[in-house]
Design brief:
Elements: H1 12-21, E1 26-29, H2 40-51, E2 57-62, H3 70-75, E3 78-84, H4 96-108, E4 113-116, H5 126-129, H6 132-149, E5 153-155, H7 161-170, E6 176-180, H8 182-186, H9 206-218, E7 223-224, H10 233-239, H11 250-259, H12 265-279, E8 296-306, E9 325-335, E10 338-342, E11 345-346, E12 355-356
Parallel strand pairs: 1-2, 2-3, 2-12, 3-4, 4-5, 5-6, 6-7
Antiparallel strand pairs: 8-9, 9-10, 10-11
The structure holds zinc ion.
Zinc ion binds near residues 116, 156 and 157.
Amino acid sequence: MRDSTLEYKENFFTGTSAAVAGGFTTILDMPNTVPPITSVKELIHRKYTAKNTILCNIGFYCSPLNGKDIKELISEGAIGFKIYLHKPFENQNLSNNNIMEIMIEIKKNNSILCVHAEDYSFSNNIESTSSNKAEVFAINNIIDLVKQINCKIHFAHISTYEGLEIIKKHKNELDISCEATPHHALLDKNDVSDDFGYCEPKLKEKKDKESILKGIIDGSIDIISTDHAPHTIVEKKNLKKPGFPGLETAIPILMDLHDKKIISLKRICETLIVNPINRFNLKRIGKIMPGYKADLVIIDPTRVKVIEASRFFSKAKYSPFDGEKFKGVIMSTFVNGQLVFNDGQIIAKPGIGNIVHQSRESL
Ligand SMILES: [Zn+2]
């Protein structure tokens, strides 16, 4: 969601507008803001900034500097923890010893560690950081550590055939899960021609793309994430900033795959609703029944959505899917029982969303 000093790229209002327009009612925010969410002070500030500006429910990832931070961050509301192996934050030591310390505390406090699995040692240049080897090395290394600590791990945005194979091999013995994005499942490096398609992990080869899509279909990939990563057009053109907005394209893309009989509706519901709720221990959402919050999305699977990035609710008005047509239009989105998005318009006032805590009721 950016915000704070990165408000010019996206803020809580525009980001959560993009979420509800894209059919998302709860999102998990990443800690790679400026400053990053590595401390209780920053987490409190982030919650305070979000509180009256959000249109959907939101949980906050934190990135711990060391194991000692974990307990306090959870009591202040951290939904989970993410480390970026390729880009540690200032004062963040991601040596194996420190990662193990973090894992021990996360396990003790029954939380989850999400890993951006691209190893730093491959980061001599931008090409090699995002190579298949960087992902494979990082996944193998984390798995070695999990074998010792048995902490709950979630691998973010898997992008390679080899990486997915390693995760599949260890899934039964270890408490690990993984996610992938629609872009890694549908695009390879030859499908995008300019810097607007640059993301981390980078788009890979056709074989990788096909294995990610297959993993989503067959259940070896647990969760679909958007990796929504807004930047300005100037930043994309001149600074090669990684990522692009994903909230307003993901569900039409998946519904179109369903229309083409590539993926079942059951798998779409598992990857977008059931599995993330279970993995992140979210309460009272995801079912239509008494006692649950009415977070509902109405989709017309017969209507065609033309992706028009210039009309995104996100501040980032570009997409590798710009101009493409997908069968599946988000008609209405309800958050906490209130209609927030209807027929192309945001119709609710900001502040409707709740801040969600892991394993606790919403605040
Ligand atoms: Zn990441």
